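Hi R.,

Here's the input for the cytidine-5'-monophosphate complex you asked about:
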Amino acid sequence: MPKDVIIALDFSTANETLEFLSPFQSLHPYVKIGMELYYAAGPEVVRQLKGAGYKVFLDLKLHDIPNTVRKAMKVLAGLGVDICNLHAAGTSAMMRAALEGLTEGCHGGRRPLLLAVTQLTSTSEEVMHQELLIPQSMGETVAHYARNAHDAGLDGVVCSPLESRWVKDACGSDFLTVTPGIRFADSPTDDQSRITTPARAREIGTDYIVVGRPITQAPDPLAAYQRCMSEFVL
Ligand code: C5P
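And here is the predicted structure with cytidine-5'-monophosphate in place:
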């Protein structure tokens, strides 16, 4: 199974992003482009990073009717990204349509991996019960959404590191888990509440960790990235 660290590029301009990445040029790490950077800098920044040799997880979390998502995924596949994602709550029909769009859009080339967000890590079990009217536990809900994603043919899910084990138990060890909420034992937690260290994420069996501020806000981002790699991968 792959094991890699994905740096969350939570910046608002292409210039800031490229400046941040300059010490990483020879390493070509996996990077994540989220809504902020994509809405600010558009597909051009994706093409730039792909052209420079980075592996790109385009984290746009699509959620719409199946036909709209199919067509949007076809466009995203044309950007040559390595991973993209959607909300499992959009239904199995939407997930199958997304996969069709991605397959069409890569014209026989390598299809980007497709991941589903189960429940956002910012959603508590209480909010899920009271506001979303989902009566099951967080564990049952995440495992059920992951199973839907697996049965629709997706490659894995984005989940909290603490949920990775439930997903693997429900869907098998080959079904990928990609987990944000990573902090070094000695670094601030910021606004994340359900967190683990890179070393603990490795023990749990997560395939990829997504790390933002512990790397992007570090005094020496390259050293922080290398620390993540040595705790998680090596
Ligand atoms: O800075 P930090 O390490 O908390 O960044 C985590 C990244 O992962 C951010 O880009 C955030 O949007 C993303 N993410 C998350 N929780 C999720 C899904 C995505 O923190 N459930």
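One thing worth noting: Strands lie at 4-8, 30-33, 55-62, 83-87, 113-117, 156-158, 176-179, 208-211.

Cheers,
M.
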